[in-house]
Amino acid sequence: MAAVSALTAATVALVGLAAPAHAADPVLRDLAAAKGIYYGTAVTSSKLSGTYGAVTGAQFDSITPANEMKWGTVEPNRGSFNWAGADRVVDFAEANGQQVRGHTLVWHSQMPNWLANGSFSNTELRTIMTDHVTTEVTRYKGRIDHWDVVNEPLNEDGTMRGSKFYNQLGESYIADAFRAARAADPAAKLYINDYNTDGTGPKSNGMYSLVQRLKAQGVPIDGVGFQGHLILGQVPATLQANLQRFADLGVEVAITELDIRMTLPATDAKLAQQKTEFKAVTNACLAVARCAGVTVWGFTDSDSWIPDVFPGEGAATPYDAGFQPKPAYYGIAEALGWTGDGGGGDPTPTTGCAVTYAVQSQWNTGFTANVTVRNTGSSPVNGWTLRWTWPSGQSVTQAWNATVTQSGAQATAVNAAHNAAIVPGGSATFGFNGAWSGGNTAPGAFTLNGAACAVALS
Ligand code: 9MR
Q1: In the Cβ-directed half-sphere of 111, how many Cα atoms lie within 13 Å?
Q2: Is 313 annotated in the active site?
């Protein structure tokens, strides 16, 4: 316990002492937070490390497991549960200060075989469904901000989809699922979610009527998710008006699965149009006071469902398959208020860095500190030297994950082989033991490869 309180007491919080020396690339989660919304991404739990994990953690403040919370994944055999992937996503989110959208509890697809092919009486099926909702929501109680309680309940013409649940239980399955979810975690916002409801039209009208009916029955529904699986050149002109009319029913709205696919190959012209369209969708959310946020369905083209399902189409996300931001990424940032390119279009590659310095523990003559340096530019960093000057005579005695030397008051940390490369949005962390006497004031300024870094909250 002594170590823990030392850590708390000695953690040094430094706020924005220096601006990056060069125009830095935007951080979507920070821009979104400043606008009062979240910017999220769907994730694949097994990929949440390395560059994929670094960009996810750096850029987004909400994550949604693309598959790991679906019924077929969590209960492949009746009564036997597999929470590994879902746990990994929730743990990652907490470690990175992110919200989680739980996806999804009751859906006609990705059901386990025992459920999809089993035959149950209506009463039994209703209990199986509400028990499932109760079990899963209870497991993550207090750790999930939004639940997609019911997913894709509608046909294209706006009538109710003939799923196993609807066919046996009628529309009341929806009310029961929401009530079970509310009882299990009263703090979670409960959503209904569908695709092709983004603009006005028969399916959206069907959703509108359904939400009206649910509200009239006192069903605890908090939000409507608009998936936003869009096609280049076909972003509905009525998106904002549509979101607004739902908001006017007294529910939150959110764009929950945004991607904008194109016929491959991606050309500069198509990517430029895609930028405009990601920007427009983000703007539509910003224009609606009750729009909680936007989630992209995979942030990189290497983690998108589109090529598997629509042969010959793809490039639907804001980052290319090599984790480089595409014009769409800058379109999102611009909608969120970023002006780093001076309004002149996609910027030339930029450099920038932000440093978090934290004393982990401190004793009479020594201390242990961690330093995280984040690449806030758009160019990859390949090999780095981080320098700082000690304000009160400290010295580094031993370091790990970097080689640290000291000359006079100046400390110089050079990357280790394994953390030499820092992708845009990514970070490297190293630690050291130091000696102090008199005072242990934190360094106020750092340079990365010669350029000043912002010093962030630890
Ligand atoms: O992204 C998901 C993909 O990995 C799965 O194979 C697929 C199976 O149906 O589901 C994808 O996610 C879907 C989401 O759960 C609901 N809306 C449509 C998404 C794309 O199919």
Answers
A1: 18
A2: no
Query: pLDDT, tens digit, for every residue of 191-232?
Result: 999 999 999 999 999 999 999 999 999 999 999 999 999 999
Residue 109 CA, closest ligand 1 atom number: 9
Q: Which of the residue ranges 123-127, 155-159, 405-409 would you say has the lowest mean pLDDT?
A: 405-409
The 3 state secondary structure assigned to 110-125 is CCCHHHHCCCCCHHHH
Instruction: Put residue 97 in one of left, alpha, beta given phi > 0 → left and psi -120 to 50 → alpha.
Output: left
By DSSP bridging, strand 385-389 and strand 410-415 are antiparallel
Residue 75 annotated as catalytic? no
Q: Is a pLDDT exceeding 60 seen at residue 347?
A: no
Which two tokens mark 119? 């035959």
**Alpha carbons 392 and 381: distance in angstroms, whole number:** 30
Q: 45, 67, 108, 317: which to mutate for ligand 1, most atoms within 8 A of CB?
A: 67
Parallel, antiparallel, or unpaired for β 427-435 and 366-375? antiparallel
| Distance, CA of 291 to CA of 78 (rounded, Å) | 37
Largest pairwise CA distance in the chain: 79
Q: Is any ligand 1 atom within 6 A of the Cβ of residue 109?
A: yes
Residue count of the chain: 458
Q: Assign domain 353-452 one CATH number from 3.30.1050.10, 2.60.40.290, 3.40.50.150, 3.40.50.970.
A: 2.60.40.290
CA of 66 to the centre of ligand 1 (A): 7
Classified as helix, coil or strand, 360 is strand
Q: Tell me the average pLDDT across 163-188.
A: 98
**Is pLDDT at 254 greater than 70 in this prediction?**
yes
Contacts with 134 (C-beta within 8 Å, 6 or more apart), sequence order: 180, 183, 184
Q: Which helix (H) or strand (E) holds 139?
A: helix 122-139
pLDDT in tens, 91-147: 999 999 999 999 999 999 999 999 999 999 999 999 999 999 999 999 999 999 999
Assign domain 27-335 to its CATH architecture. Answer: Alpha-Beta Barrel (3.20)
pLDDT in tens, 38-87: 999 999 999 999 999 999 999 999 999 999 999 999 999 999 999 999 99
Query: Domains of the chain: which residue ranges?
Result: 27-335, 353-452
Catalytic site residue from 152, 252, 277, 334: 152
Could you tell me the CA-to-CA distances from 5 to 10, 254, 365, 431, 435 in Å, in that order? 8, 40, 17, 19, 20
Around Cβ 435, how many Cβ atoms within 10 Å? 13
